[in-house]
Amino acid sequence: MSKKICRRTTSAAGESSYDLYRNVHFPRGKNATMQSGRSGIEYVLDSGVRTELLVAIARNEPSTATLLEETDASQSAVYSALGDLEGRDLVDSVDERWRVTGRGRIVADLIGTIDRIEDVFAADDRYWNNHDAGAIPREFRIRLAALSECRIERATETDPGRVKRLIGDRLDAAEEVWIATPIYDPGFAEKLAGVERARLLFDEAVVTDLDKRPSDGAMEGVTVRIGSVEFALTVTDECLLASLPECDGGYDARTEIVAEDERALDWATELFEHCWSESVPVEEFFTGR
Q: Disulfide check for 13: which of 91, 133, 245, 259 has CB 3.0–4.6 Å away?
């Protein structure tokens, strides 16, 4: 049995993964089970034993004997935690086996999600400590668990063009590309010429760069919109590439979040569509100036 206990890591956005889920899914209220104003998930996470037991019970409905054998806690601590969970209507005992209630299932699922978010942070603490995740809309930030299989690629002193080359190679291999960006890069814009289906979303701040875009037809066939974009995101048919601003607001062209798994691609697709829906066609934007 895994003994991993959720940690309360605080991101550059100022909220821990735990706080995000507590505030969104378990707002404080007057429910009788919310003793001392604490939600079910907050109460469980306050104890490593309660956390471990709830996750174990949600996994396979074990007996008390199994929990005593597999839990790294004293017998009295296990019995006490089971009583706490049962008293909060998170678990109940049926036919000498423990099972989660509907409420307990939700709390256990959220604990699993928080653990995956913590895995994202742990994989590259330096990146998440120095970059502003607050640039991502909140409804997507609380779903960062989707990036649990991502990696951070960096340019190096000996290979300063490594990240730019990585992005270019991915664009060359793509049949469909969606890009949201706070900057204008003529080199990447020209690469879109060979892409069958392309959408490009610029932040309003790059309007002057749009006026200087290549006149050789490189942007032909690319659907362009203007909106508010504080981070860079590229979604292709095979991967996502993303870059968050540094905590001082600067654009970081030397590091890139990279992921190829389905969960991450689904998250990135929804994020792009969200930003796209809140933008306007480039022609409409210039007409309204």
A: 133
3-state class (DSSP) for residue 221? coil
Cβ neighbours for 244, distance < 8 A, ≥ 6 positions apart: 131, 132, 133, 135, 136, 231, 252, 257
Domains, the chain, ordered by start: 17-114 (1.10.10.10), 126-287 (3.30.870.10)
Compute the radius of gyration of the chain from its Cα atoms: 23
Cα–Cα distance, 266 to 257 (Å, whole number): 15
Q: State residue 258 phi and psi, 5-degree precision.
A: -130, 135
What is the H or E stretch that residue 91 is in?
strand 91-94
Do residues 40 and 88 lie in contact, with contact meaning Cβ atoms separated by under 8 Å?
Answer: yes
Q: What is the reported pTM?
A: 0.75
Q: What residue ranges in 112-192 does DSSP mark as E strands?
A: 151-154, 176-181
Tens digits of residue pLDDT in 40-69: 788 999 999 999 999 999 999 999 999 999
Taking alpha carbons only, the member of 135, 156, 145, 158 closest to residue 243 is 135
